[in-house]
Structures are given as structure tokens and as C-alpha cells.
């Protein structure tokens, strides 16, 4: 650890060492499947990693939600019917269940591909609006943007 209590991730991100942050998500992913880690390392969405972490923290109430705990689902992803999806559907539960956090991250990135998510976004507000435009969340834009900003590292 450096003197400022942060660490550098393989993706070149510096994050706080406190709490379950993207560093731990990526650490868990690396331990789970090296191929998935390489997939993320070369993902076209890696520039959004900090915002994606804020999104995961917002959606899962800082990794404390029941959905996250019972199904390794940090993004609150529901069962999809219009696209191929990783994980599994559990009868009676609208949320997707994943074997690992790594699988959930891969599925989220596949979702971004499916909805043709733009790769030229420069602000967290625009990131949230692009998610809203693609039907990712039902909350109003202001609440969601404020949630992302609250959890942004």
C-alpha cells in the first residue's frame, strides 16, 4: 500500500483501500477465472471502471443488499428475455444469480454491448443518462446521478 492508503489496479485505477471496492471485485474476478480478468482488461469499457464501481455500489447499497449477498449480483441485473445472459434464473426471483462477482461483471459488460453503449462519454452525468436512455434504471435521472456521485471514488 502506498502512503495515501490506495492501491493501483491492473487497469491502472487508484482506489481507496477501505470497504469492498472495485479493487476487491477485480481481485475476486482474478482469483475466479484468469480468462475473465483478461477479458475485462481489454474491455472497451475499461475507461468507465470508476463509474461502473459507483454504479455497483449504488445498486447494491455498498455491497450490502440482499440481492448482492444472495446472488453475487452487484448491479441489480434482472433476468433478461431479449439477450443472452450469463448466470442463472431462479424460479420466483426476478434477479439474476451469478456463481461469482466476476461472472456478474462479465454479464454487465455484455449488457453494455447488447445496448450499444457509447464509448465516448466524458462525465458521470452523461454515463447515467446513457444508462437511462437504454432502460437500465427506472429511478429519475437526478436521483440516479446523485447516487452515482455519492459512491464515486
Helix content: 40-55%
Q: List segments where confidence is low: pLDDT < 50 over at least 5 consecutive residues.
A: 1-20, 29-37
Structural class by SSE content: mainly alpha
Order of helices and strands: EEHHHHHHH
Radius of gyration: 15 Å
Tell me the number of strands: 2
Portion in strands: under 5%
Instruction: Tell me the strand order in the biggest sheet.
Output: 1-2
How many H/I helical runs? 7
Shape: globular
- Mean pLDDT, rounded to whole units? 79
| Main sheet specs | 2 strands, antiparallel
End-to-end separation: 17 Å
Question: Can I get a quick summary?
Answer:
By secondary structure, the protein is mainly alpha-helical.
Any overview of this molecule?
The chain has 153 residues and is mainly alpha-helical. The chain has helices at 22-32, 34-41, 49-59, 66-71, 101-114, 124-133, 141-151, and strands at 6-8, 14-16. The protein is globular and about 40 Å long. 32% of the residues are buried.
How are the elements arranged and paired?
Layout: E1 6-8, E2 14-16, H1 22-32, H2 34-41, H3 49-59, H4 66-71, H5 101-114, H6 124-133, H7 141-151
Antiparallel strand pairs: 1-2
Helix pairs in contact: 1-2, 2-5, 3-7, 6-7
Task: Please supply descriptive tags for the structure shown above.
153 residues; two-stranded antiparallel sheet; mainly alpha
Amino acid at each position: 500500500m502506498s502512503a495515501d492508503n490506495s492501491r493501483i489496479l491492473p487497469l491502472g485505477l487508484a482506489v481507496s483501500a477501505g470497504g469492498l471496492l472495485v479493487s476487491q471485485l477485480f481481485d475476486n474476478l482474478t482469483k475466479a477465472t484468469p480468462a475473465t480478468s483478461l477479458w475485462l482488461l481489454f474491455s472497451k469499457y475499461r475507461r468507465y471502471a470508476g463509474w461502473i464501481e459507483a454504479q455497483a455500489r449504488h445498486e447494491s447499497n455498498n455491497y450490502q443488499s440482499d440481492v448482492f449477498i444472495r446472488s453475487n449480483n452487484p448491479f441489480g441485473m434482472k433476468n433478461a428475455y431479449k439477450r443472452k445472459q450469463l448466470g442463472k434464473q431462479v424460479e420466483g426471483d426476478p434477479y439474476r444469480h451469478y456463481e461469482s462477482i466476476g461472472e456478474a461483471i462479465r454479464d454487465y459488460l455484455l449488457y453494455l454491448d447488447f445496448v450499444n453503449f457509447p464509448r465516448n462519454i466524458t462525465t458521470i452525468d452523461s454515463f447515467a443518462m446513457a444508462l437511462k436512455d437504454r432502460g437500465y434504471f427506472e429511478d429519475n435521472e437526478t436521483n440516479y446521478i446523485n447516487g452515482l456521485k455519492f459512491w464515486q471514488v
